[in-house]
């Protein structure tokens, strides 16, 4: 691609309060297929928020400063909370506000305006190590220019990860975005050429170069770009803080602002960026945290 990042169209940056107001006028799904609960670093905590009634809109919840997806299941509101890989084990709380007092963010009215808090516990998890040898050492020992580029890209990616768009139709049951052999599990503690690097915050599907990469659920393309480590990448916004990320593509077939349906082709498998062979790196972001994508797959495709 000729440009490093295709930015979202303007309507994605609409005032959050306006988006929320419109969302609350829409009917909320009677039930949702939730991801599998795994209240550990890199996992998803399912936190009960109380009973739902009729077609009432959900309460609002925040984990720290980040809004959290809330879904209805079996007559109850459930907060679906993403837990970053660096989350320490322990007890945590969500700030919860019912519809009557919900604000655009907890900072708007302060914690005193909250009607309650919902507690949950995060357990410990030890992920295995993975050692990778790269012939191109420039992808490990970065030049000053490459380091500056990477730092700029990381800041942009983190901004995208915090994106929020209220939606009433978020699909929480994903399909695999590519056909192939899984070669890198989520959470692996990685060593490149013997040097410790960031954990593997997605999972890899090895596939032939040029194989199709498909949207794991419907949504709107938030951005696409060509990054130093991730290569050609597409970000899809599924609403309510849930994003999917597709990296190392050979080609990108969509652009920011495109509406996509589950199974639609987004691009082709490649090995752009830092990669040792053709594969798809698939990531999932929930309330700003990179979490295990396998938790969102139907049981038949989620074997460990």
Q: What do you see in this structure?
A:
By secondary structure, this protein is mainly beta. The chain is 10% helix and 37% strand. It is built from three helices and 21 strands. It has helices at residues 16-24, 106-109, 144-161, and strands at residues 5-6, 44-51, 60-63, 66-67, 69-73, 76-82, 90-97, 116-122, 129-132, 181-184, 189-192, 195-196, 203-206, 212-214, 219-227, 231-239, 242-252, 259-260, 265-269, 279-286, 289-291. The strands form four sheets. Strands 1, 10, 13, 14, 15, 16, 17, 18, 19, 20 and 21 form an eleven-stranded antiparallel beta sheet that branches. Strands 4-3-7-8 form a four-stranded antiparallel beta sheet, with no helix packed on it. Strands 2-6-5 form a three-stranded antiparallel beta sheet, with no helix packed on it. Strand 3 and strand 4 form a beta hairpin. It is globular. Residues 1-30, 101-114 and 300-304 have low confidence and may be disordered.
Low-confidence stretches: 1-30, 101-114, 300-304
Secondary structure tally, helices: 3
Q: Which structural category fits the helices and strands?
A: mainly beta
Strand fraction equals 35-45%
Radius of gyration over C-alpha positions, nearest whole angstrom: 19 Å
How many strand units? 21
Q: Main beta sheet, described?
A: 11 strands, antiparallel
Shape, principal axes of CA atoms: globular
Helix proportion range: 10-25%
First-to-last CA distance:
36 Å
Give the rounded overall mean pLDDT. 81
**N-to-C series of helices and strands:** EHEEEEEEHEEHEEEEEEEEEEEE
């Amino acid at each position: 691609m000729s440009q490093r990042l295709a930015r979202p169209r303007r309507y994605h940056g609409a005032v959050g309060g306006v988006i929320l107001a419109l969302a609350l006028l829409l009917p909320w799904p009677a039930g949702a297929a939730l991801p599998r609960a795994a209240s550990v670093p890199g996992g998803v905590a399912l936190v009960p928020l109380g009973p739902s009634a009729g077609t009432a809109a959900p309460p609002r919840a925040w984990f720290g400063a980040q809004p959290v997806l809330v879904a209805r299941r079996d007559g109850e509101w459930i907060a679906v909370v993403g837990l970053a890989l660096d989350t320490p084990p322990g007890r945590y709380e969500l700030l919860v506000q019912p519809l009557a007092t919900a604000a655009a963010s907890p900072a708007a009215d302060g914690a005193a305006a909250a009607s309650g808090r919902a507690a949950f516990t995060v357990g410990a998890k030890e992920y295995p190590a993975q050692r990778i040898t790269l012939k191109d050492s420039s992808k490990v020992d970065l030049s000053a220019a490459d380091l500056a580029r990477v730092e700029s890209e990381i800041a942009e990616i983190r901004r995208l990860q915090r994106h929020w768009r209220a939606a009433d139709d978020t699909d929480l049951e994903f399909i695999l975005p590519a056909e192939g052999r899984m070669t890198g599990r989520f959470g692996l503690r990685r060593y490149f050429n013997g040097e410790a690097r960031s954990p593997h915050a997605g999972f890899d599907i090895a596939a032939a170069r040029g194989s199709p990469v498909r949207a794991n659920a419907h949504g709107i393309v938030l951005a696409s770009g060509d990054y130093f480590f991730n290569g050609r990448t597409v970000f899809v916004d599924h609403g309510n803080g849930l994003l999917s990320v597709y990296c190392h593509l050979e080609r990108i077939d969509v652009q920011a602002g495109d509406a996509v349906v589950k199974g639609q082709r987004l691009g082709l498998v490649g090995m752009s960026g830092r990669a040792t062979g053709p594969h798809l790196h698939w990531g999932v972001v929930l309330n700003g945290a990179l979490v295990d994508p396998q938790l969102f797959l139907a049981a038949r495709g989620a074997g460990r």
